[in-house]
Every structure is written in C-alpha cells, then in structure tokens.
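Following the same procedure, the fold was encoded as tokens, giving this record:
***
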Amino acid sequence: MPYVMVDIEADGPIPGDYSMVCFGAVIVEPDLNRTFYGKLRPISDQFVPQALAVSGFSREECEAFDDPKSVMEQFRDWLKANSKGRLLFVSDNNGFDWQFVNWYFHHFLGSNPFGFSSTNLGSLYKGMEKDTFVSFKHLRRTKHTHHPVDDARGNAEALLEMKAMGLKISLR
C-alpha cells in the first residue's frame, strides 16, 4: 500500500469552474526520489488572480501548458509503474488537493486510481500529538516553495518523521 504525497496549485477554489495549474506527487519512501510533476492547460476561462499568483505562473504561461487529459493519463501511468496494490493519497490539505485530483481523474479518465478516499497529513499529526492546535510543518526539511514537488517532498519528509516517532504505517 504505497503512500503517495500529493500537492496541487490551482487558479481558484473549486475544480470545474477553475483549473488545476500544476501538481506534484512523491512516493513516500526513505529516498523520496520517485516524483511526478504535471502542468495543465486551463479548463475554464475563470480564474482568481490571487490564487493563480501563488503558483508563480502567469495566465499566458498556463495557456501553453499540457493538455489536462494527457497529464492525467501520464500521472495514472506513473502511479501504475511506481506502485503496487492499493494507493493511498495523502496531502497537507486533502480537502483542497483531493477535490482537484479526484475531479480531474473522473472528468478526463472516468476513474480515479486512488479510489474514493484520502488522508490529511495535518490530522494524522494532530492525532499523534493529541492536540488539535499543533502543526506538523516543523517536521519538513525541504523548504515550502509552492512548487508542488518541493511541497509534496517536504510533506513526505514530515510523514517519514512521524513514522520514526511511532506512527504505524507500512511503506511497502
């Protein structure tokens, strides 16, 4: 059951009306060297300038990105090539990241290889610490840059640290 840490950047609050700009994924394992990065052309004319600015890309740059269906096919194929068994989607803000990845998989490919659930990294840590006000972010080693591979890697580092602290997870 491989854990796949995912981070996305979007140009608005919801999929369909707005677009996923780019996303990154990291297979959670000690060396964290199996990564995926995709940049997707907008699917809508709508965008929130402040949301898009977080990604570091202009609207004009985004319009030259790859076809979303093709990127999702590449991601599906990468997941298949880099994992065995049931995939576990994990992210820092799974309420946001999951909705975009799930919507894009179902909209463009008809199914989501992650199934119907996801895990929130922050909630795992809060449970470990028995404190709903604590943050896991000090466990990251990679700087949070809003490049989704960097951010997914930092979050994967935090999950590995949580495992070292006693969280019972299998990374096979």
The mean pLDDT is 96. Helices lie at 49-55, 59-63, 68-82, 94-109, 121-129, 148-164. Residues 148-164 form the longest helix (17 residues). The longest strand covers residues 3-10.
